Structure formats: C-alpha cells, structure tokens
Amino acid sequence: MADGSPPPGSDAEPVDPASAVRPFLVTSGRVAPSPSGRTMPLETQVVATAEGLDALDRLAFEQHDIVAVCRLPQSLAEIAARLRLHLNVVRVLAEDLRAAGQLTVHVPDSGVVHDASVLRRVIDGLRAIPDARGALSDTD
C-alpha cells in the first residue's frame, strides 16, 4: 500500500515508504555527476576515506548515509539499493564526495575485451543445474 503497509490478508512484511524528497532536490538539479557529463558505471566501487568517516557528523542526510554505508567497498548499484535512492542521485552525490576527498572511487577498466565464451560457459553451467523437479533445462 502507499503507506508501506502490506495489503490486507497478505503475509508480506511492510516496506519503508519511499522518500518524499524528489531526486532533483537532493542533487540541486544536477543530472550529470561531473561537469564532463560522464557517468560512472553502476558497478563502480566506492569506499569511504578516513576524512569522509571523520566528517560524517557534518554531512547532509544522503551524503552521510552514503559515506556510512561505504565503510566497506560498495558498488553504486548496491548503495542505491541499500539506501533506496535513485541510481543517478547516488552517482551525483558520490562524485561530490569523491571531489571532497570523502570517498575513493574505483571505476572498472572499460578497455577490457569481454570474452563471450565465459558468458557461454556460465549459461551452460546454469542449465546443467537441475530444477526443483530434478529436470535439466534444455531450452536455448
């Protein structure tokens, strides 16, 4: 339901209500994480710096939450899911925190050539796992 409570007769656990603050207010209207307009991939790993952890009590709400959750390395996608924030909001705020020295950002190497045979082996391995009835998946 809209208030986060499950529908009547449902065994589902209640979900926290979504934030009423619009994403463009959190990012001051910015949609690109940096002036260059380049966005960080969703698998980008970020981790809080010592300076970021020291500044926790001085950070705004969402920035505080991002630095706090990044005590251990997290991907941008994980942060967005954990904090229930829009991915682009996390991208913009993570770039701000990186620029302030409060986060370290590790962008994956985009120049790596991807080997399709690895993906094929993963798919074949998943198909080799029996389903709940014990039958193997034979569809392509």
The number of helical segments is 6
Radius of gyration over all CA atoms, rounded: 20 Å
Q: Tell the overall outline.
A: elongated
* Structural class label: mainly alpha
Folded structure, characterized:
The protein is mainly α and 140 residues long. Helices cover 36% and strands 7% of the residues. The chain contains 6 helices and 3 strands, in the order H-E-H-H-E-H-H-E-H. Strands 2-1-3 form a 3-stranded antiparallel β-sheet. The longest helix has 13 residues.
Helices and strands in order:
Blueprint: H1 23-26, E1 45-48, H2 50-54, H3 61-69, E2 74-75, H4 76-83, H5 87-99, E3 103-106, H6 116-127
Antiparallel strand pairs: 1-2, 1-3
Helix pairs in contact: 3-5, 4-5
Main attributes of the structure:
single chain; 140 residues; mainly alpha; 6 helices; 3 strands; elongated
In short:
The protein is built from 6 helices and 3 strands. With 140 residues, it is mainly alpha-helical. The chain has a 3-stranded antiparallel β-sheet with strand order 2-1-3.
